[in-house]
Amino acid sequence: MAEEIVGARVPAAREAADDAAGTSAGPETIGRTRRARGRSDDEPFLSVRDLTVTFPTSDGPVHAVQGLSYSVPLGRTVAIVGESGSGKSVSSMAIMGLHDPKSTRVTGSINLGGIEIVGMSQEGLRRHRGADAAMIFQDPQSSLHPFFTVGNQIMEAYREHNNVSKRAARERAVEMLGMVGIPSPRRRLDDFPHQFSGGMRQRVMIAMALVNNPKLLIADEPTTALDVTVQAQILDLIMDLQQEFGSAVLFITHDLGVVAEIADDILVMYGGRCVEYGPVNSILGAPVHPYTWGLLGSIPAVSGASARLRPIPGTPPSLLALPKGCSFHPRCEYVSRVPNAACREELPELRPRTADVERLSRCHLYQPDQLFEAEVLPRLP
Amino acid sequence: MLSYILRRIATAISVIVVTMVASFGLFFLAPTDPAGAMCGRNCTPERIADITRSLGLDEPFLPQVTKYMKGVVVGRTFTSGGTTVECSAPCLGYSYQLGQPVTKLIGNALPVTFSIVIGGAVVYLFIGVLAGTVAARLRGTSVDRLAVGASLGISSVPYFVVALLAALYLAGTFLPRSEYTPFFDNPFAWASGLVAAWLILGLTNAAGYTRYARASMIESLGEDYVRTARAKGISERRVVYRHGLRAAITPIATIFGLDLAFQLTGAIFTEAIFGLPGLGVLTLRAFSFFDLPVLMGAVLVGAVALVVMNLVVDIVYTILDPRVRLG
């Protein structure tokens, strides 16, 4: 798992020169100050309640997501963090209505700007996809169609939801390409994706996703396939555009370094369930779930090169047969601290475990914040 | 692009020349008596001597090849039974058995084969790609199983059995009788005389194309860019036919180009069973009677077809896939 959870990587300068032109569109963003945070009292734009996604297979049902609840108000960013197979992508695909109804069972509630997504017809879902909610994906290389020009692909997204002429759509595409920092957008419009660098391709993806002014942007590991220098530029771009449009952002990643940079709230997923949820500062500063501790322990520190990384022992559970009780207990080193073998028998509820009621955790440990201070923090790299 | 094509054409010509020399050499080495074979029935020693002298069969290999190649470029003359036959360029030799220059024989047969193969290709491409796409879209359903099963069933029966049964029971009853009328004489008669052959060639080949298209579509529908297209909210039909099929068609085009080249060398069963005087039938007859000049002509046509279709596939590829740049 160590390779999955990455906090810092060696910067590679290959794309830096390539993308420098894009950055020059907004050099002030480099020294950006983090925008003011604080609980928004607005009605959340996206509200997920008790979401369950199940894939029936010949080996039995795969419970990819179970009882997931969270909300994202406009202008805020929620990061979903977890290993591969923890259900983070599956849950966001459900918001987009991208699951094949024939092979997937989605229950619970997904409310998007007052509209219920779960149980909606395919035609209804189609109209909402790309219009109210848009998604960008991990690998811009494979996510853009290699045989169509970028302009063609952006215009297609725009014209699907707006009854406009080809010429107007073209102008809109030029405008979007300019907005995401692609130099001389009018000239690049008729280029194919392979004629762009990795970072530029992801900018094209973002332009395509935002062309219809969606209120919710789902970013599924948008920087994972990019070089570190380019990663920072793409993160800046997403944050700038979010500020400009005031949209809600759901950011899926396994990179806690990215989370610290971009998110307001964090939702940590393990084995299809949320195990810890709360504001970014408190969760990254003093997490209360042993799995989150493990994630922090597996991030290399940039300064102290000597500290050994501590990968979480064991492997993620099979979603076909989740361990009884707490899903994490076979890998958890604090199981013995909980009396009556509760970890093995009883699934902990997701609820506040400390004085801070905004921070929810799914763990039986008593006073986990003190345990963190005393035993975990000193060992972190 | 242009310089690439010119270079490819130069390579193609050298490949064809090598093929010609090689096929000539092969037949030169063959333990046969070409003059005797060409002479056919009612053969007299004078006629054999006549053919031997006229073709220079008593000469060594090199002068013979040179003569043959020169004939291809500038034409040559043959004497047959005291009369001189003019064989204008490109002269591929003279069939003493049929009493005609090979170029003319092939020139008569090629349009027939071409008509059969192109018509059949339209049928099998259309049916195969459509059935494969539908099967891929409905993967795992009974429609998919039916398409895959039918395609396997059709491929399992030998082609000549299907063609023979069809020629016996369909042509002349449900379908018009098979015969060849040149397109420019009467397009309607051309089509109606070939429709039986087209359907049989098309349906049997469609089996393979259904499976290629299905596999190719399943792969492309699983690509990330198809998910992106869905996420944009475009209709499922557009996702499948514009985004999925567009990518799936590229590998099919490659197979199709080479299949076409292969079939152009003679759809032997189709022509023989449906009684259409195409290149396959001509070659088959030449084999039986060891009509060397015709055989060499057929080999040449095959080589040219393969080389040309390879070039066409490469050029079509650059149009289909913008990532491919020729250089």
Please provide a written account of the structure.
The complex is a heterodimer of chains A (381) and B (327). Chain A has 381 residues and is of the alpha/beta class. Chain A contains 14 helices and twelve strands. In chain A, a hairpin with a 2-residue loop joins β1 (46-57) and β2. By secondary structure, chain B is mainly alpha-helical. Chain B has two domains: 2-102, no CATH class; 103-320, MetI-like fold (Orthogonal Bundle), CATH 1.10.3720.10. In chain B, the strands form two sheets. A two-stranded antiparallel ribbon of chain B has the order 1-2. In chain B, strands 3-4 form a two-stranded antiparallel sheet. Chain B is globular and about 80 Å long. Chain B starts with a helix and ends in a 7-residue tail after the last helix. The model of chain B has no long low-confidence stretch (mean pLDDT 86).
Summarize the structure.
Chain A is of the alpha/beta class. Chain A has helices at residues 14-23, 88-96, 122-128, 140-143, 150-161, 166-179, 185-188, 198-210, 228-245, 256-262, 280-285, 290-297, 342-345, 368-376; strands spanning 46-57, 60-72, 77-81, 105-112, 115-116, 133-136, 216-220, 248-253, 265-270, 273-279, 351-352, 360-361. An eight-stranded mixed beta sheet of chain A has the order 6-7-8-3-9-10-12-11, with helices on both faces.
